Amino acid sequence: MGTFKAIRIEKAEKGTTVALTQFDESELMDGDVTVRVEWSTLNYKDGLAVTGKAPVVRRFPMIAGIDFAGTVEQSSHPAWKAGDKVIANGWGMGETHLGAYAEKARVKGDWLVKLPDGMAARDAMAIGTAGYTAMLSVIALQNHGLTPKSGPVIVTGAAGGVGSVAVALLSRLGFHVIASTGRAAEADYLKKLGASEIIDRNELSAPAKPLAKERWAGGVDSVGSTTLANLLSMTQYGGAIAACGLAAGMDLPSSVAPFILRGVCLLGIDSVMCPIERRKEAWARLAKELDASKLSEITQEIALADVIATGPKILAGQVRGRIVVKIP
Is the model's pTM score more than 0.85? Predict the structure, then answer.
């Protein structure tokens, strides 16, 4: 047993403390697979954890980080052997189970997905939980029956991690994509990803009417609160919104009108405890359908030592696209 670098969160008298430090391997939690972590990501939830802005962490000490890609070092699970390349997202990592911002992780083999053939570990984390969540949202909209012929679709928080991947995926599938953002300077970036229209998020920030003019057949929302309420009120008959985030809050100041007068559906997207077969489908489709050049366009890289300082920036909406974290 030795030690390895990790971002450790501790309970403090007021809130939490966070530091990049040495972590003893003997403190790793139970699991049947030990992975040498090579890449991780910085997601909105990770920002909440490292800043202590929300009670994301529910066990102390905690290693932050909700997803990783790496190589199996040891395994007693029948599906995995040393040398296998794997991905892990969610399952409580960084919340109740020691997470990904570390040189080693020990997890349950049932949580792991094989790194798709032809996909590098870095690219998997350029997609990360945000991109995987975007794919789950797109699958849900398609399962609802939406096609490009249904009409335009909207993506909120479009310059963020989930939004950027959702725009790229939906445009690749032939949809007319409306991108909602509060950052006008990102218009060219969003158009390069495939957005056909850009609207200011302020158009969706006023108190929602029970029903408003029908503007889109569906959408992917990572914002929640009043924004989601407005999306629902403006969704055309029989359409659907996939809700996967809460950047603006957990409340939903809406009414039943869109549901009972227009047959609109609200599709809940959970990436954390999503069943493994659905995860495999999402990663397989990401490997085939996400344009590699667009993935490069939305990605920036930081070191593990930079995560703590970058956390507040993602909460402040100062991060474009995806951040990959190189683990030493």
Answer: yes
